[in-house]
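Weekly modeling sync, notes
Attendees: S.R. (lead), two postdocs, one rotation student

Agenda item 3: backlog of single-chain predictions. S.R. asked that every request posted to the team notebook include the full sequence so nobody has to chase files. The rotation student volunteered to paste the first one in as an example of the format we agreed on. Action items at the bottom.

Example entry:
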Amino acid sequence: MRLRLASVLAGLALFAAALDVGAQPRAWLDRDSIQLGETVTLNIEAGAGADEPDFSVLARDFELLGTSSRTQLSFSNGRRSASTLWAVALEPRREGTIAIPAFDLGGPGSTRPLTLAVRAALAPADADSGANVFLEIEAEPLEPYVQQQVRYTVRLHYAVTLLEGQLDEPAADGVELRRLGSDRSYRTTLAGRRYNVVERRYALIPERSGELTVPGPRFRGRALGARRSFSIDGDPVAARGESLVLNVRTAPDGAPSPWLPARELQLERTDPALPAEVSVGEPVTITVRLSAQGLGSSQLPEIELPPIEGAQVYPDLPSTRESEDQGWLTGVRERRFAIVPERAGELQLPAIEIAWWDVGSDRVARAAIAPAMIRVLPAAGSMPDPADTPASAPVPGSVQTSAGSNGPGVWPWLAAALAAAWALTLAWAWSVRRPRAGRAGTAPAAEPAPPAPSLEEALRSGEAARIVAALLAAAARQGRTVRNLGELAAAVADPAQARALQRFERARFGDGDGDRTAALADLRAAFRGRLRFQTPRTGHGAEALPPLYPDHTAR
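Predicted structure, as returned to the notebook:
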C-alpha cells in the first residue's frame, strides 16, 4: 500500500514538473491609438491557475462592451503548457491618454501597465454626408526614405448589413506592398451615426526615390436595404479611398552600408550564459539574432562571424521570419554557429557590430554584441602542445632546444622513432604469419589480433565517433597527421571528399536528423575509394616521401 502511494505521489510530482504553468502574464491592445467613439480590445494572457482579471477597475475610463475567454493546451519538448486568454472590448469615455493599470492574476508576476491615446472624433466628409459605406486612409510617414516602411491603414466603415463585399488591395509602381496580420473589427460613432469598421494594415516599402502615388483602394459589395429596396439579393454598394502621395527621399550622405532605415534594431546573442571552460574539440554553440522594426527579413544582412584564431567555425543555415506590431513590420534573421577550439589557451569570441539608420532620430546608430573569452583546456588524455608549454615546464621525456632555435625541435625525431617502431612491428607480424621455407605442410603460426574497424566498417555503422576515428587513422596510415575533420578537409585533394567532410562536421553539431542522414550518405559516396591528399609544400624543396604502407582499409 505504501509502495502504491509512493508511486502515485511520484507520478503526480513528475506530472507537475512536466506541466509548465505558463510564462510571465502579458497584456496588449489591438491598437494603441484610436478616435473617440471607436472601440479597442484589451487582451490578457496568463498560465494555468491564474485568477480571472478584474476588469471593473476600467469602468471609470471605459465602457465595457463584453468579455470572452479561451484556454489553450500545448505540448513541446516534453513539457505541457496551458494558458488562458481573456479579451474585453472597451470604448473610451474621454479624449487624451488613458492609463490601463497592471493586472495581478495571482500567479508569477503581473502584467505591465499600458497606455491608450484617444483622439478627438473627426467625422470624414463621407460620414457627414450620411454615406452608408465609405473608406478611410491613413499613412505615416509621408516623406520616407527609400526602402523605409510606410504604415498604411485602410478602414472600411459601413452602417448597413453587408451581404458580401470585396476590398481591392492598393497597387503602385515602385512600391512593394505587404499585408500585415489579420483584419480588425470594431465599432465607432461618426456624425451621430453608428458604424462597423473593418481595419486592414499594410507595409508600403518604396523602392525608388522621388514622388510616388498610390491609388486609393476600392470596395464593392452588396448590402441589405442600402437603398431602402429591401431586395433579398441586396443592393450594390461601392466606395473608393483617397490616393496617397509619397515624397521618397534618397539615403543621406555618409549613411552606413548596407542601408538599413529602421525604427528599432537589435543584435543579440540568444543562448544562455557561455561556458567558462571547455576542452579542445568540444564545440561551443552560439545563436545570433538580428531583428528590426520597419524592415523585412529580406532587407536584413547575413549574419557572419569573423575568423577565430585557434578554432574552426561551422555556421548553420540562417532562419528568417516576420511579424507585425501595431502596424509595423518586424523582420528577424537568426543564425547558429558551432565553434570548435583546436588548441588549449584562451578562445576569444570577437565582437559583432552592425551600423543602421535610426529614422526616428534621423542619424546613424550602432548595435553590437560584446566580445567574450572562454578558457580552453587540453583534451582528456592528450599531451600539451609544445607551442603552448612554457620553457620552464618542459614536456616530460622531451629534449629542450635553445630559446633562439628555429629548428623543428624534438617532435620530428620522436615521430620518426615511432614510425620506425611501427614499421618493425608490422615486419615482425608479417614474418610470423609467413610459412617458413622448406617446411611444406607445417601449420602456420597463430594469427595476430584482428585490426581495428576499417573506414568502410565505420561508415557502415553510422556512428560519428567511429567514423571520425577511422578517418583520422586512415590519414595517419598515409603519412598525414591531422587533428580533426576540418584539417582533413583542407588536406584532401578531392573536392567531393572535402565537401562531404565539411557537411558531416556541421551535421554533427546540428539538431536535424535529416541533415545527419544526408551528410552520412554524402560521406559514404565520397569515400568509396582511398583518401587522396594534396601534394604538400616543403620548406627546402625536398620531394614529399610516399607513405610507407598503403591504406587498404579505406577502400
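Discussion: group reviewed the output briefly. Residues 18 and 207 are 50 Å apart (CA to CA).
Action items: rotation student to repeat for the remaining queue; S.R. to check formatting next week.
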